[in-house]
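Hi R.,

Here are the chain sequences for the assembly we discussed:
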Amino acid sequence: MTQTPAFTPMDEPLDAFLCFSVYAAGLAFNRVYKPLLDPYGITYPQYLALVALSGKQGQTVSELGERLHLESNTLTPLIKRLEAAGLVTRTRDKQDERVVRLGLTQAGSSLAKTALGCVPAEVLKATGLNRAALAALNAELAALGKALRTTAAR
Amino acid sequence: MTQTPAFTPMDEPLDAFLCFSVYAAGLAFNRVYKPLLDPYGITYPQYLALVALSGKQGQTVSELGERLHLESNTLTPLIKRLEAAGLVTRTRDKQDERVVRLGLTQAGSSLAKTALGCVPAEVLKATGLNRAALAALNAELAALGKALRTTAAR
DNA sequence: AACGATTAAATCGCGTACGATATAAATAGC
DNA sequence: GCTATTTATATCGTACGCGATTTAATCGTT
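And here is the predicted structure of the full complex:
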């Protein structure tokens, strides 16, 4: 079990790759969230955006992108779908017309509140972890992401 | 720092979500891999498929899908791109014409060997982890993925 | 004031993911 | 032996994610 497996036929060469376990866990989270979010008519990335927006009103697209680690090429269409669904408002900043400020509508805010009231508990159950183990793993992964981003930026 | 954060304005509500740290780490891995794989002309998911195929010749699309946790709707186009690039062979099983058996070409096999010779070491560096810590985190994430998949299947 | 450089979003094209459906081959029941 | 069902793969439409480019507004310098 090494990160650089010997190049000989092996049953599951991907098992040794951390990137793959992250990739597979990401797919799996997506599949757990889907049935939980379908009733709200939003996708998993849209849910993450709503949660991020619920933290503070009037964030810019760039600020939201910093939180989600995404850029306007991904966010603009996603946000427009949330706007079309009546969950998010997009308004040009009067001081700087280049900037778009984002906010939750009443519907968006109440959807976020409702979803946050039950979805996370379901997801926690699905992980099979207790809160302490989850927090520990979360911290390790946050550190991993940070390390990877400093390298990727070079 | 709980999985169900109180619904009050907070700077980074996503920080408490394990799903988000997995999501963000997945994005970050993708960005670390891109410049490493660009010289080979393959994407990150294509790399994972090649590594999985390097484990055993003659796997079916379904078998590859079990390893990668993907289905034919995703894999068929991906595999066809690898075939068009001359890295993978697709042949209908003579015993059962429904089945497509996959193999690496000489070029695909040698690309996999070359890439596995240097890419994983670069990625390991980017994680900032030593092999033991990486293996431990990998095992935790593999278990997490497994738990999530058993729930998602219901 | 004017103009080149920078910045924030948006747009475009391509490659995943995935639900839903289609196609074709094998199997099961009768 | 024939039809109904099941199974393996493929196709299609939608939504990300991202490199590259575009558009429009602001800033910096003169």
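Chain A touches chain B through 69 residues (CB under 8 Å). Residues 95 and 101 of chain A are 11 Å apart (CA to CA).

Let me know if anything looks off.

Best,
T.
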